[in-house]
Amino acid sequence: MYVVFARKYRPQRFEDIVGQDHIAKTLQNTIKSGRVAHAYLFCGSRGVGKTTVARILAKALNCKEGPTPRPCCQCESCLRIATGDDLDVIEIDGASNRLVQDVEVLRNNARLVPARSRFKVYYIDEVHMLSGHAFNALLKTLEEPPEHVKFIFSTTDPQKLPETVKSRCQRFDFRRISDADIVGYLEEICRKEDLQVEGGALGVIARAARGSMRDALGTLDQLAAFGNEVHMQDVLAMLGAVDRQVLSRIVDALSQEDTAAALAGVHEALFAGTDVEDFADQLSQYLRDLLVAAYCGEDDPMLAGAMADTETLKRQCRIFAPDQLIYMIQLLREAKLRARRDTTGRIALELAIIKMSRLSELAPVQEALRELAGSGGAATGRRASGAPQERGPNPGPALRRMTEKLEKAKRRPVQAPKQPDLPEGIGQDRYRQIMACAESPEAAQDALAEGPLMKAFAEADKALGLNPVRLEKRVSREKQEEPGEEEETIEDEND
Ligand SMILES: Nc1ncnc2c1ncn2[C@@H]1O[C@H](COP(=O)(O)OP(=O)(O)O)[C@@H](O)[C@H]1O
Ligand SMILES: [Mg+2]
Ligand SMILES: [Zn+2]
After folding, report:
1. What is the pLDDT of residues 231-253, one digit of tens each?
2. Which of 133, 417, 461, 491 has minimal Cβ neighbours within 10 Å of its Cβ?
3. Taking CB atoms and a 6 Å cutoff, what residues make up the pocket around ligand 1?
């Protein structure tokens, strides 16, 4: 009899569960210390191991050798629980037993001692589907559960659960399983099943599964039906994914600002049956991979499901600046949203692609302004063929003001000098006078003319670390004076 991979490879012990270490460890410790709660709530999306962990927990509690963090998997209890037909481990589907009568039956059954095990374990899947009355009935049982009863609830939608139920359970949040973890698990299965899989194909399967091990195993299962060799083309066809060669070609076209080639690539993908939103998603994913590769390196585990191979990632991630990649991803996002709203999605997508193929027009603002302001006209960035020519040399006054502001901002010191303490022996007035020297030669002249100020000036200058030195020098030169002793010290300090 053929058993699907998802069943055949359901983990049988806590150690075998992938990607939920935090939960497996905690549960094992609870069992070791004998502090198992009456009710657990398992939250998480589908196919991440909720039912699997519930069964392992039930085995751990009821194993002949137990309660033990490592069930034997050989005794009658373990074997029956593994196949889901143990009399004392009752699996209930919340979606099809949602009525109050069902819960009443459960309550009455719960009162009876287990048929042959230590505990009666009730596993209620999709518990949020129960009706309000059914919940109330359940709560009564939860309030005073018989010693021999354990509840495990699971839900994909914890928000829909009443607080009263949540507060009576110990909650575990199951994570989506990472692409790298899924690939690792699939590799193991391929070895056991003697499946030859083309490089990168498992990554594509993992990514399409979006964290669900069940989905990933399901895809692999279907592919295995074709034979012992699994090719990338089959994987892509099965998942409705855009051919990665096409994506790679589009990205190259974008980098070369070859709008025509980029549009042709899009056409090819859409013609092959990918819809606009899917295409936008997949190209975004591709660009996201380049972004991650640029920051973290092309062999980072975050790239386990990357569509492009390592060589391509390495090459393409250097063509674009991160800002350009971010901008392109944003354009695709907008196109996708627009595509969802109206029927001209394809046009929105194509417009985005056209913009993406003209990235060099996105010169930094300053550069663009300078160019527009007509200060020379020598274009700095590459220019796309057929890009509209820049305007005449006469920029509007607003534009000129903006350019000037930017220029000024560039000249501004990075750090404003902090207000220093007044040096000893210098009063507020004199301080202000000294400061004024920094502003204008006239003020400096006046100050110096005062004679006695000269020494104070030099001292203050030293203490304040100000710039009037140069002013003073100019003033001194004008006055044809020999530079004073103090001045020299100042000069040393400032040079
Ligand atoms: N964390 C996991 N580690 C290994 N395999 C898993 C994991 N989660 C799910 N699976 C696989 O997917 C199948 C379905 O998982 P299941 O526990 O029923 O998911 P859920 O109850 O969360 O929807 C299992 O039989 C197993 O083969
Ligand atoms: Mg389940
Ligand atoms: Zn056992």
Report:
1. 988 888 888 778 888 999 999 99
2. 417
3. 6-7, 9-11, 17-20, 44, 46-52, 177, 185, 213-214, 217
